[in-house]
Amino acid sequence: MLQSLDDRPLRVRNIGADVAVGDFVSIDPDGERVQHVLHRHSAFVRRASFVGNRAEAHTIAANVGTVMLLHGLTSPPNPRRLERELVLAWDSGARPVVVMTKIDLVDDPRPTVEAMQDVAPGVDVLVASGISGEGVDELRHYANDNATIALLGASGVGKSTLLNSLVGASRQATADVREGDQRGRHTTTASELVRLPSGGWLIDTPGVRAVSLWSSGRGIERAFADVFELMDHCRFRDCKHEDEPDCAVSSAVAAGTLDPRRLDSMKRLVAEEAALEAEQKAHDKTFDKRGARRPKKV
Ligand SMILES: Nc1nc2c(ncn2[C@@H]2O[C@H](COP(=O)(O)OP(=O)(O)OP(=O)(O)O)[C@@H](O)[C@H]2O)c(=O)[nH]1
Ligand SMILES: [Mg+2]
Ligand SMILES: [Zn+2]
What we know:
Elements: E1 2-3, E2 9-10, E3 25-27, E4 34-37, E5 43-51, E6 54-62, E7 66-72, H1 79-92, E8 95-101, H2 110-118, E9 125-127, H3 136-140, E10 148-152, H4 159-167, E11 192-195, E12 201-204, H5 219-223, H6 225-231, H7 248-254, H8 260-286
Parallel strand pairs: 7-8, 7-10, 8-9, 10-12
Antiparallel strand pairs: 1-2, 3-4, 5-6, 11-12
Magnesium ion is lined by residues 159-160, 172, 187-188, 204.
């Protein structure tokens, strides 16, 4: 079901149309079908589970100005997950912001915040609580000029709680996390567009367990801007940053200014993206745009 901007539910079928929350669509005159999806200025896309033997793209939200990547302060920091999320966020065309939630439950958020800031060059890392309201006002200005903010993160990090706090009403259902590992219960099951009383829009999304790359644009380059900056200073243009002489990246690892896990993580993401591109190329060779098998060349 689609939502109209004045919150009237619209019963329009979107047979065959690739529509995501945040899209603007035109509807046919009898109000039954989506006619056309307007051009998206941004789209947060991840790789969905395999359909048949092929990966499919899943658009989580469209036309988003700011993507808030939520992580809970009550769990150990997860920089590897954040790196992936940042690649997707930069690729989406939206501006990423990291929000560390549940500040009311911890005494000293600094070590966790610093660990996350280390892998988020040029990105704001903020703290907030959807329960006490601390830090929530600072988040509102990201919705200035009627912009749309999408809330993303694992189940249980507090996306719906934060949305309710931003909106000032219990708009979305929330549920307790599991005691031991702080995992959520996948309470939100579909993305929802909600109007902010002060202007702008919020998109609540279901928690995703794994963030797989779809891409590709320049997401990796932006998310790893610090490593790319070092790479400019390697002696060889095709340096693999392994054991080449005068490698600025290896020197930074040796000097302790670049975490080797971050470098590994970047290499893994580059390989993942390359594999996806190869897979797509192979698919395009075998199938035409409508998914029909091309005749074998003789
Ligand atoms: N103390 C405290 N609890 C919070 C905060 N944010 C969320 N919670 C609690 O954490 C649990 C999960 O919150 P939700 O808002 O449902 O989490 P979610 O990210 O929407 O989870 P899914 O919908 O499953 O993806 C609930 O019990 C909330 O009350 C916070 O800032 N402080
Ligand atoms: Mg939720
Ligand atoms: Zn190098």
